[in-house]
Amino acid sequence: MATAPAANDNARPSRLGPFLRSPAFGLVLVALLAAAPAAAVLLGQPFWLTMATRVAIFALAALSLSFILGQGGLVSFGHAAPFGIGAYAVLILADLGFTDALVAFPVAFLAGALFSGVTGTVALRTRGVYFIMITLALAQMAFFTFTSLSAYGGDDGMTLWARSTVAGQKWLKNDLTFAYLAIGLLALFLVLGNRVLASRFGRVFRGLKENESRLAALGYDAYPVRLVAYALAGGVAAVAGALLANQTEFVSPAYMAWQRSGDLIVMVVLGGLGPLHGAIVGAAVVLVVEETLSHLTEHWKIIFGPLLILIVLLRGGLIARILGGRRG
Amino acid sequence: MADPILKLDDLSKNFGALPVTRHVSLEVLPGEIHAVIGPNGAGKTTLINQISGVLKPDRGRVLFAGQDVTRLGVAARARLGLARIFQISSVVAGFSAQENVALAAQAKAGSSFRFLKPARADRAIEDKAAESLAAVGLARRADVAAALLSHGEKRALELAMALVQAPRLVLLDEPMAGTGKAETERLTELLAGLRGRLPMLLIEHDMATVFALADRITVLVEGAVAASGSPEAIRNDPVVRRAYLGEDAHA
């Protein structure tokens, strides 16, 4: 179908491609994102400060999904579940009197990893469409569990009393500081993620996506490797959820609705399913387009949908298309 | 006589009502190249799938390295030292040749649950991989993505992946399928160079290769062993000539 354009692309000499796929370019993207909050404050545009923070938070969630989906071929349609669990971890811990981020964030990570680890023991027994459906089903179970938590607002969710403290200090009340916490965590997990992908573990995990039967013939069991990756990705998604709870100072089951899982997949696909930092581009594009189009019309999804289809049909993701580098 | 490295004991398998493996017993001795030949549909690939663990036999046992592995899966058998070269080349297309072999070497060198140290920093594994690539003549193609290698090169790459694991037995499922004449000769030479050091179970259509390599040949017809013996004996076996070799008997 699309072989002809692909051939053209290969013929086009591009030295940019390898750079765009390299971890170094990921750091360039983070640096660009890091410039936004400072610029927003200097130019007196507080909205763009909020926007940059949101982009960093969703980029982190999308990055964790990209780790299992883009690199491992695990199409999870339930990634909003650990994301929402991270948000609830902050809310519930605050309710219990643990308001410090140094407690809340690690606990959020562990809760997300635990949820993904436990549900993964079931989901990873399946393949293909079944995996997509079972991850969706498990996430919906989490969703309905939290809608029935009347102590924490049920359907409506609940306002967070205050943002997490850091070692007892209320630094995160400042939106600029908070933005840099989000961007800092994004940078940290981007670097860590790339490191894991380059490790012995990452080599096996990436190999499994391409040729599971060959890896079996080499003596590798897919299941434990995928389970660990799946749990780690859940933990990182939960950290993003913990950030979002703090930014909006509000937590509700909508954070783990299936639409949010879909949004995360869209971000990863837009980013090109390749290197992890594609998720940053994907998250930025989705959030900015959503913001822009929703000003134009309430039915902005009518425009966004076809736009999305167009991009997917062009294959290779946005970075690849616009800047001329191709994956693989 | 030395204990066989692989022993199939009365192996049977049906696909529905169709018997595809019928009471097959055979042995591969240490250092031996044992070829399994037979016309299309004789059940050669089904047999190799039962040896590697892809399929479970309905009846009978697979003994590998003195251990009953009938109930073990593919990966577990591989860890015991059973390497396989697939009928259709099977490598990790997106990895370089070097990384493919390193991946194979890594399976034999400690835990893969190491998360932070770059895999390429492990000199011992990288050196072993480079050595194995050189042994099959792919040293200069080490950094090329496996997807871009020629058919024959992919075959050689699979062989390098098998060798780097220092296996106790290599299953070769039609290694010459689809390769050109020159490549077939080169691969045959490579395999002949391993004779005596590495036992192999070879399934192959190319009779020249079979008779050049095999120490022992088993003929499979309609899922059952029709004859088994030295290449000389098989060449002169009237049953085999009628059932299978026929016009191919020029070899």
Automatic annotation (TrEMBL), chain A:
Per the record's keyword annotation, is Transmembrane helix included, yes or no?
A: yes
Q: Which UniProt keywords apply?
A: Cell membrane, Membrane, Transmembrane, Transmembrane helix
> Cellular component GO terms, alphabetically?
plasma membrane
Name of the protein in question: ABC transporter permease
Describe its membrane topology: Multi-pass membrane protein
CDD domains in alphabetical order: TM_PBP1_LivM_like
* Biological source species: Prosthecodimorpha hirschii
Q: What are the leading ranks of the lineage?
A: Bacteria, Pseudomonadati, Pseudomonadota, Alphaproteobacteria, Hyphomicrobiales
Pfam families documented for this protein: BPD_transp_2 (PF02653)
From TrEMBL, chain B:
Can the keyword Transmembrane helix be found in this entry's annotation?
Answer: no
Alphabetized, the UniProt keywords read:
ATP-binding, Nucleotide-binding, Transport
Give residue ranges for domain ABC transporter.
6-247
Pfam families on file:
ABC_tran, BCA_ABC_TP_C
**Species this protein is from:** Prosthecodimorpha hirschii
What name goes with this protein?
Branched-chain amino acid ABC transporter substrate-binding protein
Record's keyword annotation contains RNA-binding: no
What the entry lists under InterPro entries is as follows: AAA+_ATPase (IPR003593), ABC_AA/LPS_Transport (IPR051120), ABC_transporter-like_ATP-bd (IPR003439), ABC_transporter-like_CS (IPR017871), BCA_ABC_TP_C (IPR032823), P-loop_NTPase (IPR027417)
